[in-house]
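Late entry, written up from scratch paper. The run itself happened at the end of the previous shift, but nothing got recorded in the book at the time, so transcribing now.
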Amino acid sequence: RRSQTGSVVLTAQWAGLLLGLVWLGLFASGKPAPVDLTLGACAGVSNVVGVAALYRGLGAGRMGVVAPISAVVAAGIPIVWGLVRGERPSVLSLVGVGLALVAVVLIAHSAEEDVRDKAASWTVEVALAIAAGIGFGISFVLYAETSPDSGFWPVVAARATAVPLVLVTLGATHRAFLPNRGDLPTALGAGLLDVTATALLLVAVRQELVSLVAPVSALYPGFTVLLARVVLAERLAREQIAGLAFALCGLVLIAIGSP
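Output as recorded:
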């Protein structure tokens, strides 16, 4: 909220790229084929668009609205993709998926509040959230299509593509390359957490069905909503609290029903 979105995105992508390179050096990660690097690069483009839309939405609107809506869209795309590709989760897991999606919808529901002093209207909040979800959902599918033999290379390829893309965009629009000095550590932390989450997601989709991993990963708004409550004093509605309970039940059922 204090720094320009583009500068925060660039800093986060740089941090993610550096950490990814460290992982390659430590773990001798795989032997990627050209198609894996291509898929990773395309995932990087899609992901950075999603990140930019999400950060803009979180900065301009209500976090308790933007994050959950983006998660619904982000989960829906890979779930449909997995089912179309022939994945057949167990009945118990499908019930868990349903509970997880209900949880996201409940968490997205926030109490009515005066938004006249907000920089973004409800329409802008929803549009940014949907754009973020589409970006994340497509990148999820692209990562899932990479070979297990490629290790973490797709993640590094994604960040190596995103960094120059954001640099060129900021240069062309004459925007700042760095966030405010006080926000730099936070932006770096966001990048390190983001690339770590992506790497874990990559490992997960290689071990489990995409249609199961997607709804579980889409539960991240629960943490965003709670942090928005603690840090920014955003109101936590009863429906959102119920959503967190549904999320926990869904996770348990998915875990029990997984092969």
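The two ends are 43 Å apart (CA to CA).
(Scratch paper discarded after transcription.)
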